[in-house]
Structures are given as structure tokens and as C-alpha cells.
Amino acid sequence: MSSSWGTPRPPPPPPPPPPPPPPPPPRGNGWNNGSHYPQQQYQSQQNNSYQSQQSNSYQNPPPPPPRPSYGAPPPPPPPPPSNHTYTASYAPHPPPVAYQTPSKPPPPPHALPKMGTVAPTPISHDLSKLQLNQPPPPTPMTSPYAHHPPRALHYPPPHHSQQPPQQPPQQPPPPQQQHQQQPLNKPFPRSSLSSHKINPSQLPRIPSFARPILSPSLSYNPSLLIPSGSSISSSPPPSDSRFVVVDDKNASPKIMRSTFHCVPRDKKALRKVTGNVGGSNSVGDLLGVLITPLGVPCTDDVPPSELNIELITVLSSSAQERTINPIRCNRCGTYLNPYCILSPNNTSFTCNICSSKTFNILPTTSDAILTTDANIALTYGMKCSTLEYDVGGMYDLKPRKQNVHLYALDSNPLYLNSYLAALSSLGEELISSGQKIGVCIVTSTQVLIPYFKKIQKRVERYTDNNTPVPPSTTKSGQEAYTYELSLVVMSDLREPFAPLPLEEWIFGDRKLFQDLLRSIPGLVAECKEEEGNCGGVGLGVLMESMKEFGGRGTLLTSHRPTFGVGALRDREVGQNSLYSKEKTEKPLYTPLQKLTKRNQKASSNNDKTSNQADMMDQNAATYYCNLGTECMKHRVRLDIVLTTNWKTTADPSWSTDVSAVIKRREFFDVATLGELCKASCGKFTWLKMRTNGGVGEYDVDYLREELIKLALGDIGGDAIFKVRCSSGLQVKSFLPRDPLGTTIERDFSSPELELSSISPDTCIAVELEHKVGGIPRDSNSKDKDEDPMVYIQSALLYTNQAGRRRVRVTTLALRTSTTAADIFRAADFGAVTAFMTRQAVADLQQDDYCEEGTIQRARSRVINRCVNILANYRMNTSAAKSPPGQLILPESLQLLPLFCMSLRKSPILRPSLARSKSSDYPSPLADERAYRLLYGGAVSPAMALLCVHPNLYKLNNMTPEEGEWFTPKLQERSQFPPGSREAVAFCKPYIHIPSSIQPSIACIDDDGIYILDDGFTLHLYVGQTVDDQARSDLLTKSEGSMAFDGITTETDLGRRVWNIIRQLRVCDRMSCGGSNLSVLSSRPTHAPVVIITAKKGGMGIASGGMEDMILPLLADDPTMHDKGYVDFLCALHGKIKEAVSKD
């Protein structure tokens, strides 16, 4: 291995085709590593650049083009220096060309079609005959255009002599460049398929998005979704990319993103896209929107000092003590938006949702302030896609909520000091922002509330005229009080209550709070306690204390509640057969709140008496159900942060007896506790930390960042959320069926969602359906053949942190179509994958038991949805004329098979045990599956793919730019004026990260250093043959530790790796408001770094078994339940052909 970490390795000369390596021996833990593929670095990420389509001539090979901005006129490409150019353009909807094997190598690739072509994407030959281990054919040159025509593995592009008619070049390039791949391998005769194999690195893969150096500014205009005249619409950039949105009257995709940016006109058109094919059972449609109500459209990548939640236009009254009245439709309640039609004299408007007319929108009184406010609301309502009103009156009927944060700490000595250290920093942040904080301690038998009792000093002073000085002050004006540490004990474990008024034990003084934290270890040391805690009692105390004015409570614990009311039994212990059958495994990851209700229905006609375990479960379920209801009623949010040791779920020294293994780790009942957090609009967080006699400083940092994110990321409370749709569409339900908060059903209106708390990361999925007759034609349109528009408006009524009542309104306009090709082209990969993840969670949580098992049913439905989409694409577009031996993928959904395979392999849907292998260690465990289900049911488009398919980065021989800061500069042709917030967003410094490689065991070398990012955790893997100097340059050891447990910042390598980690933590975030960079992450947690150092023997054999944590994350490899990526494509292709033949 090279010792020069900052110098790129020179490219080796092309070697002769190597013979296939022998297969590795089978692993003993049930994981099949598959064949070792020839290791190849996937390089399509380097081609992720936008190219102007004003000219489609280029040299062979072309230079890398600059990236134009979304919606802005792109710069022309440089003139070709060679006389040998190839020019071609495609008209919309060309028929697929019959690809034939040429007698000689094909000419260089031609210019590619512009947005609007619907040619299919042939991805392979007869995949059932393709194997893996042969060297790939040479790769042709890469097209400079972001949008290239659909293609086939080992098939040539359409012959250059077949040139479709010329198409006008004025449309902008499509922004889906992030998911574009290199043209695949050169064709070869069909007769030689048995001897030529697929190169796995050439299949559609996930690229690493990184802004190119000195590229033109990257911006997007949402109004391109609704083009005027004959121009072609432009879909939004990928949800996990970085871009700046210009508010041009249409909603930002960072706030509202539809699964299809061209909506099917009616149910018939929808069935052409997602309908069941081949007589399969119904698995649901994918028509819906994902809404982040408190998202901010333009603050992505803005430095923290520039962040301001008021980037959303806020309308307030011109008088300081008054509020503003929004202009609304008298019939349906829709807020005025840019798509309403104003009368010429601005006295009335026609609603774009219900088409009714509202008169007298401007006041006729002589109140100048009222008239001014109405004119402000009218002006901004007609030009802003997202608008916020400062309201009062009928919108503000409840007392204001206090900014109070209460924390209940588990008395476990292994974690207590880390809790106190994290709260010490958090208290500084909260108190400095004008909020108050309180702390209590939860033991096994009682709840301790330390506080400072205020004692009044006796001051005997008199003024010059013998008037006594009041005892509260001295002559200098200082308070004459002293504070004495006191302790209140709440020992009633059956009916928890608030033993002390809230004002007595919350602090707004930094010094007193720090003194309190320093006194807690001594108070806990005097208590002789058993292992475990009465965490359920502590949660009850938090809710009772904040019942009057609301607030936020957080339980920091390392155990499930085991004493008092809300105690949870270990439903896993000693039962080695629970994981062998899905019917007995499902109760382990099902919340008791739902499980007991189902059991009551099932046993309503059964007279058998319940045993003690059932009674304990019933009592716990009743308590947590009532506690969640009370929290919603009194506007209290409860969060739970569970801290455990990494090795509780990663120790490989497993006994063959499952019951012995389960006894060595604790069952936390994540499902039940997570359901309580969900009912109160809180968050359940699971942090795995090292505890070899204590907690390291790095773990304290993770805990501190997570607590800051929880405390400062909540900017909305007491919220009501509603969605309105224009004629022809209606809200079917929220997804999953039991979303965050409480659903309120209304007669003749769409349902509302009541939330006690909402944060900028809160993403709500709304499932839509067509009304009878579909979307009607627009009566105001002059062209009767023009497809109508559809409008979706979300409204959020909430209270901000300053106590002001606000209404935030966002309006999205989309075009419609009855053509399947148009709808497929406008599919949004991020929204579709987030929707499919939530559908899978809903399938898994269904109450009914099926014969094949709920996990197997959910896994089958994922495949059925994928098959239906791809089969409809083949049957209802020009792909129908393609040869049946090709796997055809829509350009916008090229990664859909990869996502579906990864979702089936994820802890959400992966079976815990293989059939007939009940002696193996179950993976995932019930708590792990329940935790992933919590976040799968609330996943955002930006994180849907990463949470099931990890990114693997190799840190060996990084280029000099990787791991270093870079500040982009605005180009002279940039549309952003210097100093504007868009310019600030674009010019924010960022860190170059290496290109990702496929997550496969074949890509991990023994002398390599890697980061594996699964969305929840960053795994730093150091190979077994990495030299000692490189290890010491990267890793550190804590005092008294024998293992590496930290990353140094003193060396160049360590500093650059830390930079990459920092960038990975923030680059996948969605835009949102806040004051701290860590608050902005849309990841489930502040991703901890787990260091895995391999010992001699290779992957999975080292002592400690930490390597086995990443083996299930290598999604490209075959497992005991699923095939590898290439074999999965073969099987999927067979299912598609079968479905098409049956239909």
C-alpha cells in the first residue's frame, strides 16, 4: 500500500483478461459473500455534469462540459477543435430502433436527444443467460449530455444513418443527471452471450453528488413544471442533490415533491403506469405528494450565520399590536395563491381549487390599517408559492406554550456522566436563547428532583429617614437571597404526579444550572439501587409537570422501564423458537399499544383467563396509550434517547443456542417506546456507544449533538396540517395509515392532521386518488385539446418559538397527461422510493396474518410494485417494440430495481433467520427491525435510498482535492446577483468527497481504508494489512485503552477524513431552518463513527466481531435470502416477461 495518502495512484496499464478467481469458502454465519467480482472503480460519477443543448455538435471524445443552471439559459459548449463531428437530434416519441450487431465497431456516439424523447432504456440482453466472472468488453466513449437515449447492455446505440427529424433546441436540459450512467459495454453477437459476461460496475448505480469546481451556478425554477406554449417541462433536480430554488410562483421541490410531476388525468391513465399486470393482486398506486411543511426552499448550503427562518416571506400587520387576515375562498377555504384568477379591479378572485368566485376581498371600511394589510396580503399572495401569515383571532384560541425543556436521566453510572456532560453544553445553548431547562433522576424505586431552594436573607438596613429597606434587596440593589440545594423524592410508582411546581425546578440561570449538574453524582451515589429503572414513571412525571402550559420532555436511558407503572417485560428471553416463525416473531416488533388491542379482539369470545405476562403487557399498553393521549391533549412532546453498548448486538462469540444468546443482550422494546414518542409527536433515538468502564469523549460529542438537534430543531408546536386538491383529485389517506400525530376526519372535506410538535425534518406523505371522471378540462382554456392543470395546496397552522401564531401556505401546480410516456418521464425517483418504503412499512404492520407471513408478503409486494411499473412501461410506451430479451427501464427510474433489491435486504424486510436454520443468531433482532420501521414510516425523499442502500467510499490514495475545503466562485454569466441569498448559498465552502464504489465484498481490499455510510452510522473500516504508520496517522487510542477508538486531527490524513465525515453528515440534509448546522441534518441521528479495525484472518474473523456489523450492509452481494444485483436483474426480467405475456 502506498504511504503517500495525498497523491493519486497512477493508472496501471490495461492487463490481459485475468482468469476467474476461485470462490471463497462459505461463511459459518449464514452469509454468502458470493463470487469475487473483478474489482473495478465505477466512474460514472465523474460524468455528472450538465451540458447546454443549444448546440449538439461535439468532438470525439468531448471535453467535460460546464454545468448550467436549472431553468436558466445554459452557456454554449466550446467549439469542437476537430472537423470530425457528429450531429443528431431526436423528435419526441421516436419508435425504438431494432438494435443489430454490427460487423465492425460502431462509430462514436452521436448527440443525444433533448428532454421530451421517450425512447425506452434497454438495459440488457437475455439476462437469464448472463454470468459474472468474465472480463468486460471495452467501454465506448461517453456522451457529454446529461440526458442520453435509453440503452441496452451489450447493444449498440441506434445507427447513425437513422436520424430522426430535427427538434428545436430551446428547452433546458433535464436535471436528472445525478442518476445518469456511462454508456455500457460495446455490443457483441448474440451467439456469444454464453462466453461474454456483464461487468457489474457498468450497471445503473448510485453516484456521489459533488458540485463541480468552478461550475455555473446550479439553480432550479419550479415554474418549469408548468411550461407555457409548446415548451417541454423540466423535472426537479434529484431530491438528494444540492441546488438552489428560485421562488417563481410554484412550490419548491424541497417543500412539496410529487411522485409524478405530470399527473395522470384519470384512473385509466394511472393504470397505464402503476396498474396490476398479468392478473396479479392489487398492491396500491404511487400517486401522492411528500410535504415538508416547515422546510425552507432556498437555504440549502447557506452557512449557519446566514440562516434565517424568515427566508419564507412572512406577512404581518402594519400595526405592531395587530395581526393580518389571510385572503381565502369563501367556499372551500383555499388561501389566495398565484394561480387564482383576479378580477380586473382586484375586488374578487376565482379559486383555482373549487372554481368558485369570492367577492369583496378588499375591505370597504375606512380603517387605513385594515386596508393596507389587505393590499399586502393580495400583493404577496399572488406572487409567492410559499407564504406565511402572522395571524390571531380565530386562529389563536389556546394559551401560549412555554419554552420549557425537562430531562429525566437514568441513574446508570456507566452513562450518567456522559448525560451530565452533554446537558452542560445544551443548557448553555437553551438558556442563552431565553429558554428554561430542568433535570430529574430516574432510579429503580423513585424519581429524584434536585432543585435550589431560595432562602431570603434577613437584612436590617434603614434609610436616612429611618425607613427600613425591603428585605428582598440591599442598598446596592442586589438581591438578598441565598440558594440551598434541596431534593424532592417522588416514590409513588403506581400513580406518578408532579411533586413540585414547575417554576421551582426549571432554570434560566447558567451558574445555578451548572452547580446543579455537578451535585447530581453525589446525590445518586447515596442511593442503593437495583439494575433497571422506573422510566415509565419518569415519563409520567415529565408530562404531569408540563400539563398546564405544555413543553418538551426527554428521557435519557440505557434500559427499558422495568419497575413501576409502564414496566416492560422481556418478551424475548429464553424463547429460542420466536424467530423461527413469523407469526411468533411479529409480536416482538409490534408495539404493545397495537398488540393488546388486536389480542382483545381475537379473544373477545374466549373465556380463558390471562396469565401474568399478558396482564403485565395489558397494563403497560394501557398506560402508554393514555400517556400519549394526554400528551397530545396538553401539547407535551416526549422524546426518548436510548444509549446502549455497540457490542450488545455485534459480539460474534454466539452460542449455537439462540436462548443463550438472547440472555446476553437486553430487550429494549423499541416498538412500544417508539410508539409513545410517535403519539406525542416526539422522536425515539437509539445511540450505540462504547462502554468499556465508561464512555469516551467521542460518544459524548455524538450525544451532545443529538440533544442539541432535538432541542433546537423544534420550531413549531400546537399545529394543524391540511391539504386541499383541485377538481378531480382528493386526499385518500396519509401514509402510513397511522401517521405522526392524530388524524381528524371531516365530513365532505379532506382529513386534517393534528400535531403537538413539528420540526423542519417532519415529512408527511399524502396519498391521492382520482374522483369519478378524473381531472376535468379547464373551462377557461382557449385550447380544448390542452391538458388541464392540477393544484395542490398545503396549509400549516402552528405556533413558532417566539409564541406567535402562524399559517404557512404552499401551492404546487402540476400539468396532467393521459400519455404513459409523459408520466413515466416525469416520475420522481426520490418521491417514488420514499412512497414505496412507507407502503412496505404499512404492509408489514398490517394486523391480519397471512399464510405466507407478513414479512414475506411485504417482500413480495415490493417486487410486484416494481414489476408492475416496468411491465407497464414496456407495454404502454414505445418500448413495446423493443426485443423481449431486453430489460427496459425508464430513464427517470433506472435505479428502481436497485432500490427494491436493497429494501428487501434492509432490516425493514430482511427475514431474521433462514429456513431450517433456527440455531443461527437472528439478524435483525426485533428491536433493530422496530427501529428501522419507525424511520421507514417517516422517511423523506432525500434519505429513502441511502437508508436501504449504503454508500461505500475508499480513502486510499485520495486526490489532493478530496477531503479539502473549496469555495466556489460566481461566474460572470451567473444569474445570481452578488450578495443575494442564492449567491451566498452557491458560494458556501464545501468539502470534496471521494466517488462512491459499489458496496460489495469484492470492492474491499485488505490494504484499504473505507467509510461505509448507511444513513444511520458511518463505519470506518481499516483493512488488516494497512501498515502501522497509516493506522497511527489516522487513529488514536484513549488513555488506558488497547483498541483504536478515535480519529486524530493532528495529521493530514486524519484531518481530511474528519472533513469527509463532516461533509457526509450534512450533505444529505434537506433544507430547513435553525441556528446550528447539526440541527439541519435530515438523518435519523447525528451519525456516529464506528471504527472497525480488521485483524489477521480477514473480514468477520477478528476478535470482537465488529466487521460483522457491515456484512449485512453490502447490498450488492447475495445473502441467504436474496440474490446479488446482477442475478436479481435476471430474475426481475423474467418476472416482467411473464407478466407481459399474461396480460
From TrEMBL:
Q: Locate the Sec23/Sec24 beta-sandwich domain: which residues? A: 718-817
| Gene3D superfamilies linked to this entry | beta-sandwich domain of Sec23/24, Sec23/Sec24 helical domain, Severin, von Willebrand factor, type A domain, Zn-finger domain of Sec23/24
Pfam families per the UniProt record, alphabetical: Sec23_BS, Sec23_helical, zf-Sec23_Sec24
Q: Name one GO molecular function term.
A: zinc ion binding
GO CC terms of this entry: COPII vesicle coat; endoplasmic reticulum exit site
- Where in this protein does the record put region Disordered? 1-206
UniProt lists compositionally biased (Polar residues) regions at 191-202
* UniProt domain Zinc finger Sec23/Sec24-type: residue ranges: 326-357
Q: Where is the composition biased (Low complexity)?
A: 37-59
Bias type Pro residues, positions? 8-27, 60-82, 92-111, 155-176
Annotated GO biological processes are: COPII-coated vesicle cargo loading; intracellular protein transport
Q: Which residues form the Sec23/Sec24 helical domain?
A: 828-913
What PANTHER family does the annotation carry?
A: SEC24-RELATED PROTEIN, SECRETORY 24CD, ISOFORM C
Instruction: State the name under which the record lists this protein.
Output: Protein transport protein SEC23
This chain's source organism reads Ditylum brightwellii
Q: What is the lineage of its organism?
A: Eukaryota, Sar, Stramenopiles, Ochrophyta, Bacillariophyta
